[in-house]
Amino acid sequence: MKKLIVKQMNEGQEIFIAKVSEEINSNLAKSLRAGDRMLVDSDGLAFIYILEDDSDLYYLYFQQDSWESLHKITLEQKKLVLDLGNDIQIELTSIVEELAFLTENIDGNGNYGEAMETAVQEVFHN
Predict the structure, then answer these.
(1) Which of 27, 44, 45, 47 has the smallest number of Cβ neighbours within 10 A?
(2) Per residue in 87-107, pLDDT tens?
(3) Which residues, at least 6 apart from 49, have a Cβ–Cβ distance to it below 8 Å?
(4) Whole-angstrom Cα distance, residue 84 to residue 19?
(5) What DSSP letter does each residue of 5-56 carry, written as one string?
(6) b/e string for 34-69 if b means 16 or more Cβ within 10 A?
(7) R_g of the chain, CA atoms, integer Å
(8) pTM of the model
(9) Within a 10 A sphere around the Cβ of 87, how many other Cβ atoms?
(10) pLDDT tens figures, 14-67
């Protein structure tokens, strides 16, 4: 499992484009595909989108500073694309549905911890 952290989110007319903090090897970038599922890191206050290749999983971390953009993506049903450089992009399929499910599940659910629940309520339920 490798951890990738989203450091930048840019809004276009039809899509949002996310960029990670580190340069990704072009061979790896070409082999990555959307995993269509998400996890929550309650301790790190992050949503994690799963990327995969033929042999491994990669965790794409959306930390709290990207949540406003994530909220807008869910509200406006926009696409989110991960730009890996070298003209390689991956659409993060199912992200709207996954985020909607997670944020609804976290709301009022103490299993995620008070800090995560409060942070999600402030961004996604106001």
Answers:
(1) 27
(2) 999 999 999 999 999 999 998
(3) 34, 35, 37, 38, 59, 60, 62, 92, 95, 98
(4) 7
(5) EEEEEEE-SSEEEEEESSPPPHHHHHH-EEEEEEEEETTTTEEEEEEE-SS-
(6) bbeebebbbeebbbbbbbeeeeeebbbbbebebbeb
(7) 14
(8) 0.95
(9) 8
(10) 899 999 988 899 999 999 999 999 999 999 999 999 999 999 999 999 999 999
Tokens representing 6? 């989203």
| Structural tokens at position 110 | 């103490």
- Only one residue has tokens 């949540």, namely 67
Tell me which amino acid residue 35 is.
Answer: G
d(CA 95, CA 118): 21
Q: Report the length, in residues, of the chain.
A: 126
Q: Look at the alpha carbons of 59, 123, 98, 113 in this order and tell me if their dihedral is positive or negative.
A: positive
Strand 33-41: give its sheet, edge to edge: 33-41, 46-52, 57-63, 2-11, 15-20, 79-83, 89-91
